[in-house]
């Protein structure tokens, strides 16, 4: 009887947990006068969106039906690893995919035109993005002015076309195995002709290629990569960034997932990263530890103002704290760094844990214990499965305190 009752409780508990949905976004729609149709959107918002006042960069994702789930997973994981900021993702579902993603071209082979059917709507789709979708998203969500577009295959073709025609429309492009077998009429005009003022070029353009070998697609992609490299190398006053990433182990379909992951990482790399000064000489050259802390704070404050969204200084402060701990006569300043980190994020169990670690390194065991205790209390409230690690830190420091007390007696 007791066994049956126990099994009943277990099954009831499993049933309750099974009914809890896991959601990664919501759907919305917009009517486009330009396209004369409703367009379905899939929207991902950062987990703290509703409780924050922050503005967020936006990733506009083509072919959302195929790409939305893995793009959300990549964005969340990269943010968790402090590689990118939190972002909003706007997935755009297709209606007439070939129509929207292909430009009109006098060089399109008649047989290809007949095979593809309704082509040449890229200019209308650009107008929809610029004049309808972006204003709609900016009106309804807290967006930063930093915009990214990700396109795969024909979506990659669209990326290249829109970049060549309206490079200012997006700050960054993730262009995945673009279908450059389809002609873009001005692609051979040369970047110096298309972009006569290098100082205005500040975009990041990330492009991948999978196993494609048929036709002239591969050759055109490699040529385009060469055009980017030549333009950047020739014009030292440009801020245009470009990376070509060949992924021969991926298929034309599978290349989408790693491309979004590595593309987001590449785009935000210079924004998120901060040069480390690991040696005492390098730290003192900045004006000493306190000036080094000030430099970190100023750098990320300035970057946040420049890009229009909050860029976390957490990783840079942590790096500085660890570097100071390795320099014997500068170790006490590590506490100052981790105090600043805690002030910046007062509800972070990691911030308390790091401060405790700094105190422990200085032999201030009671202060270390106090911070480890707060860290453990906070982490338990989150349900983080690694709370036992924080418990181990507290147990270790309590043991050290007992040993030290016993020696005194």
TrEMBL record:
- PROSITE patterns in alphabetical order: TPR
Q: Which family does it belong to?
A: Belongs to the esterase D family.
Q: Indicate yes or no for the key word Hydrolase.
A: yes
Is Transcription one of the keywords UniProt gives this record? no
One GO molecular-function annotation for this sequence?
A: hydrolase activity, acting on ester bonds
Q: Which UniProt keywords apply?
A: Hydrolase, TPR repeat
| Organism this protein belongs to | Aquimarina algicola
What residue spans do the TPR repeats cover? 349-382
Q: Can you say what this protein is called?
A: Esterase
Output the superkingdom of the source species: Bacteria
Q: Which Gene3D superfamilies match?
A: alpha/beta hydrolase, Tetratricopeptide repeat domain
Instruction: Show the taxonomic lineage.
Output: Bacteria, Pseudomonadati, Bacteroidota, Flavobacteriia, Flavobacteriales
Which InterPro entries does the record associate with it?
AB_hydrolase_fold, Esterase-like, Siderophore_Hydrolase_D, TPR-like_helical_dom_sf, TPR_rpt
């Amino acid at each position: 009887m007791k066994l049956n009752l126990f099994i009943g409780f277990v099954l009831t508990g499993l049933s309750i947990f099974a009914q809890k949905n896991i959601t990664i976004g919501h759907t919305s729609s917009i009517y486009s006068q330009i396209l004369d149709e409703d367009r379905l959107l899939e929207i991902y918002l950062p987990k703290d969106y509703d409780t924050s006042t922050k503005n967020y960069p936006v990733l506009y994702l083509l072919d959302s039906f195929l790409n939305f789930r893995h793009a959300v997973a990549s964005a969340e994981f990269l943010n968790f690893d402090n590689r990118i900021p939190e972002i909003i993702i706007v997935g755009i579902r297709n209606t007439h995919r070939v129509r929207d993603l292909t430009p009109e071209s006098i060089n399109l082979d008649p047989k290809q035109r007949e095979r593809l059917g309704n082509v040449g709507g890229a200019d209308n789709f650009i107008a929809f993005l610029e004049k309808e979708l972006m204003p709609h998203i900016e009106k309804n969500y807290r967006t930063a002015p930093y915009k990214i577009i990700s396109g795969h295959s024909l979506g990659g073709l669209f990326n290249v076309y829109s970049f060549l025609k309206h490079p200012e429309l997006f700050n960054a492009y993730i262009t995945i195995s673009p279908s450059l077998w389809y002609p873009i009429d001005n692609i051979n005009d040369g970047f110096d002709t298309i972009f006569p003022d290098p100082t205005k070029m500040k975009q990041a353009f990330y492009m991948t290629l999978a196993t494609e070998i048929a036709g002239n697609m591969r050759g055109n992609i490699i040529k385009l990569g060469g055009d980017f490299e030549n333009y950047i190398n020739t014009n030292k006053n440009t801020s245009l960034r470009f990376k070509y990433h060949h992924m021969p182990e991926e298929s034309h379909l599978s290349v989408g997932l790693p491309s979004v992951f590595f593309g987001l990482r590449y785009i935000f790399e210079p924004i998120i990263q901060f040069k480390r000064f690991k040696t005492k000489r390098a730290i003192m050259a900045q004006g000493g530890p306190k000036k080094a802390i000030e430099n970190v704070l100023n750098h990320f404050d300035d970057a946040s103002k420049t890009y229009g969204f909050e860029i976390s200084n957490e990783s840079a402060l942590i790096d500085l704290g660890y570097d100071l701990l390795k320099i014997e006569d500068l170790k006490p300043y590590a506490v100052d760094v981790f105090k600043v980190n805690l002030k910046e994020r007062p509800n972070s169990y990691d911030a308390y844990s790091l401060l405790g670690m700094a105190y422990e390194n200085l032999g201030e065991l009671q202060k270390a214990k106090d911070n480890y205790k707060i860290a453990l209390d906070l982490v338990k409230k989150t349900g983080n499965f690694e709370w036992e690690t924080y418990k181990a830190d507290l147990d270790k420091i309590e043991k050290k305190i007992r040993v030290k007390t016993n020696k005194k007696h």
